[in-house]
Design goal:
single chain, mainly alpha, rod-shaped
């Protein structure tokens, strides 16, 4: 049985979409790893350098929430891109 060949412009678009899906999946892991690194840094800073005042707890809580929201938005945007490129593949 003969294999069906794609036209060159379709092959190029397909390869571009596949490469972008792979790249964005890697970026999701990078963003997650950086968020975990920031959480670890906040934990270390809170244990060593901050006194247990309400102001210090407030700032650390704010940093944790800010990191979470930033990571959530980043992951959402990357996942949206992956979904778009997968739709292009279909």
């Amino acid at each position: 049985m003969a294999e069906i060949q794609m036209p060159p412009h379709v092959q190029a678009a397909y390869k571009d979409a596949v490469d972008n899906v792979i790249f964005h999946n890697r970026q999701q892991w990078v963003a997650t790893n950086y968020a975990l690194l920031i959480y670890a840094a906040i934990f270390v800073i809170s244990a060593r350098f901050f006194s247990r005042t309400d102001l210090a707890r407030g700032w650390l809580g704010f940093l944790v929430v800010l990191t979470f929201v930033y990571n959530l938005v980043t992951i959402y945007l990357l996942q949206d891109r992956v979904t778009r490129f997968r739709a292009r593949l279909d």
